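Anyone able to model this chain together with pyridoxal-5'-phosphate?
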Amino acid sequence: MVDAGRRDIERAVSGLAARLPAELAPLASIAYDYSWCWHADGPALFEAVDAERWAACGHNPVRLLREAPQESLDRTAADDALLARAADIDARLRAHREGGPDGAVDPVAYFCAEYAVHVSLPVYSGGLGALAGDLIKEAADRSLPMVAVGLLYRQGYFRQRIDLTGWQREYWLENDPALLPMALVRGEDGEPVTVSVPVRDETIVVQIWRVDVGRVPLFLLDADRPENSAFARFSTAQLYVGDPAVRLTQYALLGIGGARALGALGVDPVVVHLNEGHAAYAALDGPGATLQDVVEHARRRTVFTTHTPVPAGNDAYAGPEIAELLEPLARERGFDLDEILRLGRTHPEAEHEPFGITQLALRTSRAANAVSRRHGDVAREMWADIWPDRLTQDIPIGHVTNGVHVPTWVGGPMRALLDEHLGPRWIEHAADPATWASIDALDGAELRAVRRRQREALIAMIRERIPRDRLARGEERGFAQAGAEAFEPDVLTIGFARRVATYKRMGLLVHDVERAVGIVGGHQPLQLVVAGKAHPKDDPGKELIQHLLHVRGAPGTATRVVFVADYDVAIAAKLVQGCDVWVNLPRPPMEASGTSGMKSVLNGGLQLSVLDGWWAEAYDGTNGWALPGDVDADHQAQDARDAARLYELLEGEILPSFYDTENGWVDMMRASLRTLAPRFSATRMLADYARLLYDPGRQARPVSRR
Ligand SMILES: *Cc1c(COP(=O)(O)O)cnc(C)c1O
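re: yes, here you go
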């Protein structure tokens, strides 16, 4: 494990422990290693200290231990059974952190603009962060030497509330790093370790926080330092803000600052893995006398994962903006700015072509991958012009299909059931199809009982939140009150939760309002939970939410259709664990992969999805339902067709099967678990990355394709 900052974490642990009864020292130590959150007993342990306080402080264990009333701490200190559980978890976490390959092995450095490690660390917005969080957790579990680099956004991503007209409103909350499980990395002299990054006309000083995610340290860069200008200090405050100047500053800090920070921390990575292009400027600041040398050096060790199958989704900026941003770096290093600009254009000679970070990343890495098989095809087409002398199939972009971190997303009851049937070490061997072979022997009634328990946990969350959400946006009392009676434990529960972008087509759910309302209240009823945030600048996305919420007047829907505001990873977990069917309706081929469906699979959820992203390689006719994945330029016709098919499947197959006492539903759950859980686990994904991208023996060769 990389040592830089470890002492600072230990100091923070002692500082916290000193405020607590002596018996609670192990809890302080657990609080500063996020691997508690995927330990089977971790969340329950903190909840047992003070359930109310645990909820009130957003499941942040450092805040819990600092803010819990003395009587809760004293009661915990006198609870021998609880202390024994804490001692056990602490010993396991410690043994794992300290065991395995030693710190002398040069790690993979993973760069990403966002990480969803846990709801209490709000430095993520959605799918990209969820993937990054899952990947570093898996690396921790597998003891793959890795350090992760990101930015500390003190205000995180925006929080969502909905007003009475159904319009999304955004607000931001400030996080105090002193109350988060992280420590400022300090040098021998006790002063914070800092690095300087020349950005436009300013040299921005950034400090570095360390977060422990099991064996993987996550270093978060933070520009909120007194010597910086107000603009610079604010530049790392919010994630994915609209202003292009701020975003470009963030990219420079993440890429150039991140690479310099690793140097200052004494880390010399064997591989630099850029997860999305945001950190691509890292390639411009390595060792070397000329830009060419520097790029050559980067190319020997950089691998790049692209996530964006839509040309407009790939960040690109006018040449002069980039020139202004990078001018001081070019001056400092003696590089020709025009040469830098050429690296970011698909056609280097086309001077008026915008500068794209994806192009820069593709040009400066030795291997690149898309995130599903179909996305690989799309990405090779999209970027073919960068390699004008190659056939499309020889474009050096392969694919590693996404996967999800099993112990993070599997619900408690399901985990216990699988522990019992697949053996105690099934999670370690989750990627091995043999692990799942005995699923077919799983008793149908037991499986249904576990599903019911997880559905009930979702319903409890809904009944608690929906009245509050509705009252907060000023709904009339009766409608708000109905939220407290929302959902029934034996009714088919359907989930649709994701970033609200137009291509995700949330509107298909209510394409034909009358028919949709008829299905919800039919003799075989259905209940629907929807959640998702639209980007603050995405008015069409906000209109979609508004349109959906306007269906609330229809009879019977007040308790059967709910919109859960402020989607985050905690809500996502409840939804994927509780829903029987998980719906995904992207407009093909715009879904790079999607991962929420994989989380649902682990919990016995069945997929109803367009054959795009991961589902295009996952669906086999027995393990879920599919809508066509064809590309159609006539979007209206496509929407009408897909909505009709969606309703038909619900009415004709899904509802009858769910309410049938025959075992068709259970058979499909078994098929889904058996065929999908191993393939779409982060264990398989990390093994693919290690084999196809990290292995230095593969230098300069394209990733092989299956
Ligand atoms: C898993 C997850 C996502 C990704 O879901 P998609 O299937 O890609 O839409 C987004 N947001 C949160 C909070 C998640 O947990």
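Residues 524 and 655 are 6 Å apart (CA to CA).
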